[in-house]
Design brief:
Blueprint: H1 3-12, H2 16-19, H3 24-37, E1 44-48, H4 54-63, E2 68-73, H5 76-86, E3 92-96, E4 109-115, H6 124-133, E5 135-145, H7 149-157, H8 171-179, E6 183-191, E7 194-201
The structure holds S-adenosylmethionine.
Amino acid sequence: MNREKASFFDTQADQDWADEEYTPEETAKIRRLIQETGITAGTRIIEPGCGTGRLTKILSDTVGDKGHLIAFDISPKMTAKCRSRLEHRRNVEIFLSSTEDFIFEKQTVDMILCHQVFPHFDDKPLAVRLLANALKPEGKFIVFHFKNSAWINDLHRKAHPSVIADMIPSQQEMKDMFEAVGMKIDTLRDDEDGYFLSATSAV
Ligand SMILES: C[S@@+](CC[C@H](N)C(=O)[O-])C[C@H]1O[C@@H](n2cnc3c(N)ncnc32)[C@H](O)[C@@H]1O
C-alpha cells in the first residue's frame, strides 16, 4: 500500500470532484458505459479505486440482487464514505486495500471496471495480472475515464507529488500489458469523449 498516495486521497474525499453527484454530462457517459459494456441485472463486477462510491451505487442499482460488486480503495476516508453511501446493500462488499495487495478469487467475476484509477496503480503490469485472473474466461476488463489520456496525464503532472507520475500508458504499452496476460484489446477510444478501453480473453 502506498501510504503517501492514500493520505493524499484522504485529503480529497470531501472535495466536489470526489463526492458530489455526477453532472448530467458525466451521468450520460456512465449510462453509455453501462450500455456499451453490457452491465445488467446479475453482472458480477470488481471496481478497484471505488472512491466515495458514486459509481458503486449506480452499479449496485444496475446489477441488482442477483449481481455482486467487490469495491476497494487505498484511502481510509474514501472507503468510509463509500461504506456509508452503500452500507445497507447486500450486493456490495467494500474493502480498504490496494489493487496490488488484494487477494482475488480466480475466475469469479464478469467484469473489471477501473474508473479513473488505472494511472494510479503503482505496479500496472501486476495490477492487470491480478485483476485479469479474477475474470471468468469470457469476462471484460474495462478502463474508463471521463476525460482523455492527454487531459488526465496533464492534470496529474500538475498535481500532488504522490500522483505526479501517475500516467495513462500509451496505447502500445496498454496492448503489451494486456497481451502479457492473454487478453486482447477489443476497443480503445481516447478522444474528446474521454478514455474507454475494453479487453477480453485472447482465446
Ligand atoms: C481519481 S480517484 C477516482 C475514484 C472513483 N473511481 C471515482 O471515479 O469517483 C482514484 C481513487 O483510486 C484510489 N487508488 C489509488 N491507487 C489505488 C490502488 N493502487 N488500488 C486501489 N485504489 C487506488 C484512490 O484512493 C482514489 O480514491
